[in-house]
């Protein structure tokens, strides 16, 4: 089987859906912790959007492993090829890790995980201040890494 | 690469830099990195049911809030911040704040003149902020909740006030609970058209309809420093289905402020500074360690 010359339609639809959702998510995230007045609706949006991204990220990873992407241009310098591969896997890792940390964060802080009114997710971590201590800062710092990675990805693609 | 090749690529590189910078700038604005207060400049008792839904209530003995808006709330916090040299708030700044906000002056007057109850058990606890209840058939009503004690109100005498230790209310609570459970009726006051929804410093008229919806019974209490309350954030917007916040902006502000405050407190616990997390200052914590 020869590798395709382009990303196929499914891969492109997945990519652009997630691009919009993840960028929106990063803005919602930083906005909700920095705003005094807009926090409630931003938090309500942040949780279901995060879970949606997690589901799409899993679907996308499975799809990518089953359908190899087109090769990088043959004339690309080696360091650029390496950077492209590494940054793509970093993006995959972060788009899985961010929602998972987000999901595990409320229970250690004693919060319920309300997806929407009346719909709660089961906790995946215990109610424990020691666990809770590092989760919000991990979520914040990885979000900044993710945003930086997206900017690099955007600059490289352009 | 020859210089001319770089030269011909300059416009494209500039465009890329511009697009990337625009995203970075928008992100920094939203995150509040660009404003002096690190805020987005967009606008100047826990109950758990069988299905895991929670209602975290933090109630107060005062009947109305000291300020009417987020801006005034912020101004109040800044005006009451102790100065580093005196350890007390700047009296001039506080005076100017009270002059600008008559509702805060009214609150200060209430705090000075209202009688002090002898116990948590005979105190009315007020929700202050307005919530919105939705009935099963979709009817929505603005309400304010309060807990009316079954024990009759008793005011402290001037002598009692002078002799009271710092934690006498907590001690009294423990003493009373050793004898019998304590009870409050949960009253829901229904708003009439014209009652202030967005301003918690405005009380509703006393003749508003009140519905006695439940009874709260306290059978035992745990100390703040070690009890389960320590590890909970009493976010006023953690509400069960059928109950929502309202247009009252102070609710959003409390939710926004309690969250980082709670995160810092939990972080102190996580780093082994439990005494500080429970409210002691670092110096007092070392002085009182048994």
CATH topology of the largest domain in chain B: Catalase HpII,  Chain A, domain 1
Secondary structure: helix percent of chain A: 55-70%
Query: How are helices and strands ordered from N to C of chain A?
Result: HHHEEH
Helices and strands of chain B, in N-to-C order?
HEEHHHEEEHHEEEHHH
Domains of chain B (count) = 2
Name the CATH superfamily classification of the largest domain in chain B: Catalase core domain
How many domains is the backbone of chain A divided into? 1
Identify the biggest protein-protein contact and residues per side.
A-B, 35 and 48 residues
Q: Specify the number of helices of chain A.
A: 4
**Number of continuous helical runs of chain B:** 9
Distance between the termini of chain A: 30 Å
Q: Main sheet of chain B?
A: 6 strands, antiparallel
Give the DSSP E fraction of chain B (strand runs of 2 or more residues): 5-15%
At CATH's second level, what is the architecture of the largest domain in chain B? Beta Barrel
Please describe the biggest sheet of chain A, giving its number of strands, its sense, and whether it closes into a barrel.
Answer: 2 strands, antiparallel
The residue ranges of chain A in which pLDDT falls below 50 over 5 or more consecutive positions are none
Count of individual beta strands of chain A: 2
Helix fraction bin of chain B:
25-40%
Rg of chain B is 25 Å
Distance between the termini of chain B: 72 Å
Beta-strand content bin of chain A: under 5%
Can you describe this structure in just a few lines?
With about 160 residues, chain A is mainly α. Chain A is built from four helices and two strands; from the N terminus they run αααββα. A two-stranded antiparallel sheet of chain A has the order 1-2.
């Amino acid at each position: 089987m020869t590798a395709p010359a382009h990303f196929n339609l499914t891969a492109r639809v997945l990519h652009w859906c997630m691009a919009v959702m993840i960028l929106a998510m990063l803005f919602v995230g930083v906005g909700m912790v920095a705003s005094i007045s807009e926090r409630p609706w931003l938090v309500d949006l942040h949780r279901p959007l995060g879970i949606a991204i997690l589901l799409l990220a899993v679907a996308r990873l499975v799809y990518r492993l089953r359908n190899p992407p087109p090769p990088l241009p043959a004339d690309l310098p080696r360091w650029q090829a390496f950077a492209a591969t590494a940054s793509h896997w970093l993006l995959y890792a972060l788009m899985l890790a961010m929602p998972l940390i987000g999901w595990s964060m409320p229970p250690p802080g004693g919060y319920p995980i309300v997806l929407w009114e009346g719909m709660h997710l089961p906790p995946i971590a215990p109610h424990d201040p020691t666990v809770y201590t590092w989760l919000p800062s991990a979520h914040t710092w990885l979000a900044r890494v993710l945003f930086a990675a997206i900017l690099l990805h955007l600059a490289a693609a352009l | 690469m020859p210089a001319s090749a770089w030269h011909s690529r300059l416009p494209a590189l500039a465009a890329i830099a511009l697009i990337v910078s625009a995203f970075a700038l928008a992100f920094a604005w939203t995150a509040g990195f660009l404003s002096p207060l690190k805020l987005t400049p967009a606008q100047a008792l826990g109950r758990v049911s069988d299905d895991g839904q929670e209602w975290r209530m933090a109630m107060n003995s005062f009947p109305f809030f000291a300020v009417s808006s987020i801006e005034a709330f912020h101004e109040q916090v800044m005006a009451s911040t102790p100065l580093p040299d005196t350890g007390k708030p700047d009296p001039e700044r506080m005076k100017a704040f009270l002059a600008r906000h008559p509702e805060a002056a009214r609150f200060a007057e209430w705090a000075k003149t209202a009688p002090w109850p002898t116990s948590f058990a005979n105190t009315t606890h007020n929700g202050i902020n307005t919530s919105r209840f939705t009935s099963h058939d979709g009817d929505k009503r603005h309400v304010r909740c309060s807990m009316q004690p079954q024990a009759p109100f008793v005011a402290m005498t001037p002598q009692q006030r002078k002799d009271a230790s710092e934690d006498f209310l907590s001690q009294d609570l423990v003493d009373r609970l050793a004898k019998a459970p304590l009870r409050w009726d949960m009253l829901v006051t229904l708003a009439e058209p014209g009652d202030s929804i967005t301003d918690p410093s405005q009380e509703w008229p006393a003749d508003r309809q009140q519905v006695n919806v439940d009874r709260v019974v306290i059978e035992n209490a745990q100390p703040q420093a070690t009890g389960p309350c320590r590890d909970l954030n009493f976010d006023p917007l953690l509400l069960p289905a059928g109950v929502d916040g309202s247009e009252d902006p102070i609710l959003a502000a409390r939710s926004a402020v309690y969250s980082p405050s709670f995160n810092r407190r939990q972080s102190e616990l996580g780093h082994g500074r439990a005494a500080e997390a429970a409210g002691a200052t670092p110096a007092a914590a070392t002085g009182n360690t048994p």
